[in-house]
Write a structure and sequence with these properties.
The protein is mostly beta strands. The chain contains no helices and nine strands. Strand 7 and strand 8 form a beta hairpin. Bound molecules: fe (ii) ion (FE2).
């Protein structure tokens, strides 16, 4: 059966938010053993609210149906040009489950609920990451929880507090939007953002997001091109990108 993705779920949709940001910075520590490729995946840590956060990470790419975007036309022949077909689930990689990746050593549970990680003391280039959370059936996952954490623009994690850490819930269409800064780079890793995604009452997917064109991508053993932000671009003095997370729900 062909399942069609609503327009608003198409990866081709560009979502962005405008805004501004502040200055100074912080503390914390991160060392070179951060997220060594040998590190074990998700330790289970209880991410915020919502259901029994069992911490089980979701396995790598999944199947999903493949379907072609075929427009049906049962009406009598006309001279009207056919409409552009609505993107169907399976016409690209949308229905492959998002890859799981190591949590690394700097996850802190119980982050505050907030869609913006920009606050006093946070410096850097503003970044907006937006997109949807869907299932392998291409249906939106309403109220999915997304918990983000990252280092600051100097490559330092705040391991004492919650700076640049926060969780939010997707809306009823599975949409989410994170406002933050472009994370810095620290030894051994390319630029990245950590996160956990969880459908209500379902296992937690722990993964990371990457940035296209980063010199360090090719040298980072954890980096995976499938987790690169899409449509990464300049936006209102900052940067913006999109990513659709696909959960095995
Ligand atoms: Fe990291």
């Amino acid at each position: 059966m062909t399942i069609r993705v609503p327009r608003l779920l198409s990866r081709r949709r560009i979502l962005w938010i405008g805004g501004a940001l502040p200055i100074p910075f912080l503390l914390g520590a991160c060392d070179d053993k951060d997220e060594a490729p040998s590190a074990s995946p998700t330790t289970g840590s209880a991410t915020p609210p919502q259901g029994p956060a069992t911490g089980t990470s979701v396995a790598t790419a999944g199947g999903g149906s493949t379907a072609s975007a075929t427009a049906t036309a049962s009406s009598p022949a006309t001279s009207v040009a056919p409409l552009e077909p609505t993107p169907a689930c399976g016409d690209d990689d949308d229905d492959d489950a998002t890859l799981a990746q190591t949590e690394g050593p700097y996850f802190t549970p119980n982050s505050p609920e907030r869609a913006s990680l920009i606050e006093a003391g946070v410096t850097g280039t503003k970044l907006v990451v937006s997109g949807f959370v869907v299932g392998t059936d291409c249906q939106p996952v309403a109220k999915a929880m997304l918990d983000f954490w990252q280092c600051d623009d100097a490559g330092v994690y705040d391991n004492d507090g919650y700076r640049l850490r926060g969780h939010q819930f997707a809306d009823d269409t599975g949409r989410y939007a994170l406002e933050t800064i472009l994370p810095g780079v620290y030894p051994g890793r390319t630029r990245h953002i950590h996160l956990k995604v969880q459908a209500p009452g379902r296992p937690v997917l722990t993964t990371q997001l990457y940035f296209p064109g980063e010199p360090g991508n090719g040298r980072d053993g954890i980096y995976n091109a499938a987790l690169e932000l899409e449509d990464f671009r300049d936006d209102g003095g900052g940067k913006a990108g999109r990513y659709t997370f696909v959960l095995q729900v």
